[in-house]
Amino acid sequence: MYFTSPKKADVLQTIRGAKAKYGKDTRAHKAYERLIRPQDVPGTLLNLALTNLSSSDHMLRLSSYNLLGALCKAFKFSASMNLMCNKDVSVPMDPSHFIVKVSKQLASSEPQLTFDFLTEFFVGWETFTEEQKPLSLAYMAPWLPGLRTAVLANEPDAEKGKEKIAALFRKLIDVAMSDHSLAYTLEQAVWPAIYQDETILDIFLEELMRAASGFGFSEEPMEGLSAIVSGMGSITLRGKVISRLRKALNRSSLRPTRLSFTCRRYSMLLLVNTIHAACTSFSLDDTRFNKLRGSLDFLSEPRSEIFSTPPQFLRDGASMSTTQDAGPSLAATENLAALLFEVCSVAAPSVDVSNAWRSRWMSLVASTAFQNNPAIQPRAFAVMGCLAREEVDDDLLYQVLVALRNSVGRLGDDTNSDMLISIVTSLSKMMAKLPSASRYGLQLFWLAISLLRLVPPALFNCTAQFLEAVMTNISTVGDLRGDKMGPLLLQGRVQLEDAALPLDEAYGIHFTHDNFHFAVTNAMRVLSAFLDMAGNPASEVGRPSGEIYRSPYMALILARTVGAEDLKDSLWLAGINPSLLGDLSGIERYQDLAAMKDKDLLLNTAIELIDFQYLEDALQNRTLRWLTELATARPAVIMHLCGPIVAILDEVLLHCQNSSTLESAQALLHGLTANSKFASALESTVVLSEILEDMGFSGLWRSCSFNFAQDYDRRCFILTEKLIELIII
Predict the structure, then answer these.
(1) 85, exposed or middle or buried, with CB in 10 Å at 0-12, 13-18, 19+?
(2) How many helices (H) and strands (E) does the chain have?
(3) SS3 per-residue string spanning 58-76
């Protein structure tokens, strides 16, 4: 019987009001009333029958069985032949196996019911008792694979089909998030049905990501979503999650995004869990297991230990670190990269697999490093340097140099040095594996020199390491040793002269055949590398030539070492056997002082004096005693240096508290004032400036490594960028 009225809305409102006022049901009324369509009937009745088959009431179980049989017969389902309605049949208390079996059969034979069945399942979910829910999920799972074949494939509009499936998955995710006691059933029955089909897995993952974005940084919901992913246990899904993570990082290159402050903590948890999984899942011998366990224990130490500064070794390019110049961020990245490099070697079942892992890692790092992203790029280059332990080809070097050119421009614009430090350190490590046939070999020397002159004092060590690494690399070419070093390096600069010569003018330091060795005198370790090449002939490496005592590199090394042991260390760094030089305790600054040219002696001494104020007392004392000796033996040289020497003496006598240094300063002052030749030169530096300018060193005092009071104009940065461009074209 059907009733209708033109005031239907008013009648319904009155009935609802009366029910709310006098009814015994105190539950909140749901405003949404669902309209059941004729096509919904099979799905609704099928869910009703399957759910109540597990009821504790015998009559309800029997009624549900007969309903299922009648339903299959009425709609001519193939499962009807396995069902026979009977009012006296006994349905067992827990027919779980039967219910799941019938559901699988229906899902396979009646795919047209898939969407309606699943829709009705989630509509009725809230009405299921807690005891019914696990079994309900088990009989629902066989219908999930049909989403692709019965819904997506039959929908003319693919996007509409995906949205239908996505709506179902959103409800499934809500079910999994709301009741964690269902996790086992989901893992055993539901998740395998999803991850075995990549098409619906992609849609499910999209909804997971959307749900994660909606929760923001709330920890509890994120734990629930993480449990879903881990519960699936699918390598395919994990790969897709990592791929999404990389895409999110790459998007930050196009649209800068503030990342979570907890990302670092979660990254460490991921790292620990990854190594833990390798320890517990991989087949490892005792030695490799112990090494891997040691890495895991190391990561579990307090964070201050994990990010401690890695040890620096003198000649190993791979040990160079950005720690001193770039702070803890890049140092932490280098530490972790070195650790993971070792893990790849230890955990891999074979060398080929280990190489494949590292190759893939290098590929991912390179794709990140060469995308403009100030936050991530420096870390990517730090990792690239740690991975560059195989031969480095010119193609990779070209891309690194392009990035370096951009970082130089950035340093000139906003003084942000992290990117420059990371790239230069990475290049330093790559030099150890750069083949001698590389087209960039000699030109990288001039790049290192230009960077050394460009950067502020805080970045000097980083660029000096790069210069040393370049020198170590090109020293393997025999023709570049001994007297041939300067001419060949200058020859390699010819195609760079459009930028190199203006840079010489800007800095006031000119590189020519006559003064090449003076122009490159910079820092102790770099001096050792130059002394190695200039003082060791190609035919007798390790046995110094007679010219070593007149070398400006040797002169400055002697001026910067305290005692014979320090000198031995410096000579060993230069590849020279100290025992071949005899007793080092009494070695003279110059073996044959009378044979030295005035201009060479003047230039060596001037270079020694430019950073005098930064030296420790013992070295200052040594230099002052040497100046006193030189004032007696070669007064013509000291005469031109009187101006700087007077300034040095004023500083020492006013502020020095070391008695030995004060005595040496007084002895030098007495020597200068006692000689009438020095009287007119004490107050003048004009002659010295003219001499230095004639020799191509007019910028010596302003361009020294520690005296950066003058900020070079933008032209120096532009010229350095141009120099890099000339190298890579």
Answers:
(1) middle
(2) 37, 0
(3) HHHHHHHHHHHHHHHHHCC
Tokens of 570: 């410096």
Distance of CA 202 to the CA centre of its chain: 28
Distance CA 121, CA 116 (A): 8
Instruction: At 351, list the tokens.
Output: 């060398």
User: What pTM does this model have?
Assistant: 0.70
List, as one string, the DSSP characters of 105-161: HHHHH-GGGHHHHHHHHHHSGGGS-TTTHHHHHHHHGGGTTHIIIIIITT-SSHHHH
Q: Which among 359, 338, 339, 356 is positioned nearest to 348, based on CA atoms? A: 356
- Which is nearest to 502 in space by CA: 729, 721, 727, 719? 719
Tell me the three state secondary structure of residue 92: coil
Give me the residue spans of the domains in the chain: 37-254, 274-483
In terms of DSSP H, where are the helices of 180-285? 183-185, 191-195, 198-215, 219-232, 235-254, 263-281
Q: Are 705 and 485 in contact (CB under 8 A)?
A: no
CA distance 242 to 251: 14
Distance CA 246, CA 1 (A): 63
Determine contact, residues 590/604, Cβ cutoff 8 Å. no
258, pLDDT greater than 90: no
Rounded distance between C-alpha atoms, residue 681 and residue 672, angstroms: 10
For the residues 141-152, what does the mean pLDDT come to? 91
Q: Count other C-beta atoms under 10 Å from residue 334's C-beta.
A: 28
At 525 the pLDDT is: 44
Domain at 37-254: CATH code: 1.25.10
Which DSSP category does 548 fall into? G
Q: How confident is the model at residue 310 (pLDDT cuts 50, 70, 90)?
A: very low
- Report the 10 Å Cβ neighbour count for 578: 18
Query: Can you tell me the distance from the alpha carbon of 605 to that of 558, in angstroms, rounded to the nearest whole number?
Result: 12
Contacts of 691 (CB under 8 A, 6+ apart): 599, 602, 640
Name the residue among 630, 617, 632, 628 with its Cα closest to residue 662: 617
DSSP structural state of residue 345: H
**pLDDT per position as a tens digit, 401-414:** 999 998 888 887 77
Q: How far is CA 676 from CA 601, 639, 683, in A?
A: 22, 11, 14
- Which of these, 442, 491, 492, 493, lies nearest to 471 by C-alpha position? 442
Distance (Å, whole) CA 500 – CA 282 = 55
Distance between CA atoms of 680 and 130, rounded to whole angstroms? 105
Predicted confidence band at 168 (pLDDT cuts at 50, 70, 90)?
very high
8 Å CB contact between 636 and 617 = no
Distance of CA 215 to the CA centre of its chain: 28
Find out whether 275 and 299 touch, Cβ atoms under 8 Å.
Answer: yes
